[in-house]
């Protein structure tokens, strides 16, 4: 809300602002919160700058960059080959900037005896081949599969990294509209299994080890935790030093930016040594 | 001479007044048609965005396939399970809400004293003022955990509370109706008592059996069709009670007095005179309740589990289901409008189906009310 008010105020005050005081971002709903928080913080420190952030999904972000309707495209995945090809044809040179890492812990009820699962077991559970916790070393309890809604980047990541391209999620899976909703459903359902962002793990739920690795900021960064991904901001060509886009993306390396990223529940990129 | 000048208008004045009259009428007509146009515009815009889906993919898969994988490559948009989910949740909500709603209306219009009714009706109507997200929250944090922790016991208790009085009433009434009439007074009483006892013991056996079955049930997930139906039923209740009560009131004092004058008891007056006279109104109350339950979004999105499946067996209310409204609300967020993907258009196709169903319900309601009115007039 505050962002939009700021934007509205700035739009009015900035009729004479130069083009370089304006920055348009579009793309992933997962990266969106980071971009919005960055924009809010940046605009508070630099009045007269106008940054707008839209969240229309990673695919649309890539399209916007291709069509030149945004300066920075937020993506929760790398560009697809088809997207790279289309950009090459149009003379757009996408440059990837990793702004943060995201891990998806697999959550179960605290009373669940299972400590960890392999990716194969997870795939079995989410595709409906494994229906009872006793099949993976737990007590005799039906598994209740809980997923994020199919439109979220979180769902897409989980599906890509766990299920693969061919597998379909079991039709009895429940869908919830938010990460908080997943945690809420898991903490009150004994047989439940779900997944959410790293920022949503607390004592009320148990995060499973996957392939023997517990999810954490460290294991997400060193890529040993299998369900982790980098979050990108793409620009057309390397942004010029001192340009607004460079400064904005550079925020992810500043102390303030890292704080913001941690607050939202992602893992900041480690400082350069 | 002056007066006639004022009464008889000149040709110019006449034309001017006529023009103003026309202008006024045109203005009022425009204002009135805005409402009607809004409905047509909604229908048009929804149909316009639904059309590309049907023309690209046909109607067969949409209505008859259960495969709902909008995010898969390639996506599949079989909405049969979602239609079934909507029907199941709405149907269960209506089954749960109509009997208590109609009984409450009868009670308020004909049995409770006037001043009690004056207090009770606004209180029941207040149920309609609670925002649906609050109902959803209640379902999620109170009802769902309760069902999950002690599902069987809760269901059994609810069954006893609801079914005991209903079956008791039904036994008494059935015994009364089935007692042969051509008997002496004493024999008649004896037969009726025996029949009542017989029915009562039968219903007690039924109660105990079903109660035992329900008590043994395990509820894996408290977020399911039943939770959503119970909340939807409560939400539909104020509409059903209020509109039915109005219909029963509208049956009129003369009708009731006429019935009493002929020697009918209050029960006979209620069941055989007032209720049939108000039947069309009660029916439209039920239809309004159906539409309320069918169109509700927030509660089902929060409390139905949103699993795109047809429960096995189909009447198993303890499994999660997905409804049309929840699908539209949940998927619209990121279905890309700009590119106009199939996922975007399929949501409009669902909206169009909901809209057409509402229209049909409305028309059916109107038709029944008009027909009933004609019949009551003796036409």
Overview of this structure, please?
The complex is a heterodimer of chains A (273) and B (379). Chain A has 273 residues and is an alpha/beta fold. Chain A has 2 domains: 3-102 and 230-268, Periplasmic binding protein-like II (D-Maltodextrin-Binding Protein, domain 2), CATH 3.40.190.10; 105-214, Periplasmic binding protein-like II (D-Maltodextrin-Binding Protein, domain 2). Chain A has helices spanning 2-13, 32-45, 58-67, 81-90, 119-127, 153-163, 179-188, 217-221, 244-250, 255-264; strands spanning 22-27, 50-53, 72-75, 94-103, 106-108, 116-117, 144-148, 174-176, 192-195, 206-207, 209-210, 228-236, 267-268. In chain A, α2 packs antiparallel against α10. Mean pLDDT of chain A is 85; it is low at 1-19. Chain B has a single domain, classed as MetI-like fold, CATH 1.10.3720. A two-stranded antiparallel ribbon of chain B has the order 1-2. With 379 residues, chain B is mainly α. In chain B, α2 (11-57) crosses α14, α4 packs parallel to α8 (225-250) and α6 packs antiparallel against α7 (185-215). Chain B has helices spanning 2-7, 11-57, 60-64, 80-111, 114-126, 132-178, 185-215, 225-250, 253-261, 266-277, 279-295, 298-303, 324-332, 342-376; strands spanning 68-69, 76-77. Chain B has 14 helices and 2 strands, in the order αααββααααααααααα. At the A-B interface, α3, α6, β8 and α7 of A face β1 and α6 of B.
């Amino acid at each position: 809300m505050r962002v939009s008010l700021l934007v509205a105020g700035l739009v009015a005050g900035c009729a004479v602002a130069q083009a370089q005081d304006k920055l348009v971002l579009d793309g992933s709903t997962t990266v969106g919160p980071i971009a919005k928080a960055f924009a809010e913080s940046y605009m508070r420190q630099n009045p007269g700058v106008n940054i707008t952030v839209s969240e229309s999904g990673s695919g649309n972000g890539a399209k916007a960059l291709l069509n030149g309707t945004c300066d920075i495209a937020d993506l929760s995945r790398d560009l697809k080959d088809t997207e790279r090809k289309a950009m090459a044809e149009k003379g757009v040179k996408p440059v990837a900037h990793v702004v943060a890492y995201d891990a998806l812990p697999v959550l179960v009820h605290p009373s669940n005896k299972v400590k960890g699962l392999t990716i194969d077991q997870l795939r079995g559970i989410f595709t409906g081949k494994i229906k009872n916790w006793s099949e993976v070393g737990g007590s005799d309890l039906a598994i209740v599969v809980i997923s994020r809604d199919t439109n979220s980047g979180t769902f897409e990541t989980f599906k890509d990294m766990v299920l693969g391209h061919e597998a379909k999620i079991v039709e009895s899976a429940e869908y919830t509209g938010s990460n908080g909703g997943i945690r809420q459903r898991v903490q009150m359902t004994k047989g439940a299994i779900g997944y959410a962002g790293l920022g949503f793990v607390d004592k009320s739920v148990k995060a499973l080890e996957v392939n023997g690795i517990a999810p954490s900021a460290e294991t997400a960064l060193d890529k040993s935790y299998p369900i982790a991904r980098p979050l990108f901001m793409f620009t057309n060509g390397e942004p010029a030093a001192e340009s607004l886009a460079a400064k904005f993306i550079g925020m992810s390396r500043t102390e303030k930016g890292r704080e913001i990223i941690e607050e939202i529940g992602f893992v900041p990129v480690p400082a350069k040594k | 001479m002056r007066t006639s000048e004022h009464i008889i208008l000149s040709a110019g004045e006449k034309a001017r007044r006529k023009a103003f009259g026309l202008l006024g009428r045109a203005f009022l007509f425009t204002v009135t048609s805005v409402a009607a146009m809004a409905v047509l515009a909604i229908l048009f815009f929804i149909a316009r965005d639904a059309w590309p889906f049907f023309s690209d993919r046909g109607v067969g898969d949409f209505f008859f396939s259960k495969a709902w994988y909008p995010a898969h490559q390639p996506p599949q948009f079989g909405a049969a399970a979602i239609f079934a989910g909507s029907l199941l949740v709405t149907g269960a909500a209506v089954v749960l809400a109509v009997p208590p709603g109609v009984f409450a209306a009868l009670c308020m219009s004909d049995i409770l004293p006037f001043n009690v009714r004056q207090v009770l009706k606004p209180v029941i109507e207040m149920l309609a003022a609670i925002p649906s997200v609050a109902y959803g929250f209640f379902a999620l944090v109170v009802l769902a955990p309760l069902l999950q922790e002690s599902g069987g016991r809760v269901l059994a208790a609810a069954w006893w509370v609801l079914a005991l009085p209903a079956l008791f009433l039904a036994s008494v009434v059935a015994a009364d109706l089935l007692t042969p009439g051509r008997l002496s007074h004493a024999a008649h009483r004896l037969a009726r008592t025996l029949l009542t006892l017989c029915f009562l013991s039968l219903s007690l056996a039924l109660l105990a059996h079903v109660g035992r079955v329900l008590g043994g049930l395990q509820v894996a997930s408290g977020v399911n069709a039943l939770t959503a139906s119970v909340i939807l039923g409560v939400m539909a209740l104020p509409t059903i009670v209020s509109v039915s009560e109005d219909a029963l009131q509208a049956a009129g004092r003369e009708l009731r007095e006429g019935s009493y004058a002929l020697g009918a008891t209050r029960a006979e007056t209620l069941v055989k005179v007032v209720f049939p006279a108000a039947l069309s109104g009660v029916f439209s109350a039920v239809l309004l309740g159906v539409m309320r339950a069918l169109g509700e979004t927030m509660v089902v999105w929060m409390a139905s589990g949103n699993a795109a499946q047809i429960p096995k067996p189909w009447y198993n209310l303890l499994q999660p289901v997905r409804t049309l409204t929840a699908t539209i609300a949940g998927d619209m967020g990121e279905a890309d409008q700009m590119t106009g993907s199939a996922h975007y258009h399929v949501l409009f196709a669902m909206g169009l189906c909901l809209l057409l169903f509402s229209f049909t319900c409305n028309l059916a309601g109107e038709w029944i009310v008009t027909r009933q009115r004609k019949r009551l007039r003796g036409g």
